[in-house]
Amino acid sequence: xxxxxxxxxxxxxxxxxxxxxxxxxxxxxxxxxxxxxxxxxxxxxxxxxxxxxxxxxxxxxxxxxxxxxxxxxxxxxxxxxxxxxxxxxxxxxxxxxxxxxxxxxxxxxxxxxxxxxxxxxxxxxxxxxxxxxxxxxxxxxxxxxxxxxxxxxxxxxxxxxxxxxxxxxxxx
Length: 172
Fold this sequence. Notes:
The chain has about 170 residues and is an all-alpha fold. The protein is about 60% helix and about 0% strand.
């Protein structure tokens, strides 16, 4: 893939960093904050980010396993989060090349419908299993996740950025 002009080259990502960030995202989602419908799903943001930036390392299998962990941790219908995370991961891996050509604010607009799709799928599964509608606050969750996208990009790409080179004779 040809890098857009002006974009710095990134160092390879450490797989331990990917695993640690997903573990932290899972732990933050498991915090006992109650059933707040508008609360953003941080693990979903991380799965979309790593699915777009590292599609060979983070794919549908990882999304399914983390979704099962979320289902068990939140005592929801087994497979509810797993299905929505897997569908989300599939779509992100399918469009990751196109997504990375945009700037970070435009990427946030591109992933907003994906977050809305995942939340709609979770809602449909919840309602089909006899659950109750959580209210109109559910519409705020995808918006908050899209607003978290630039922050996630800045924080998660920071370890990969090259330090400025003081040697003017080396091109790389």
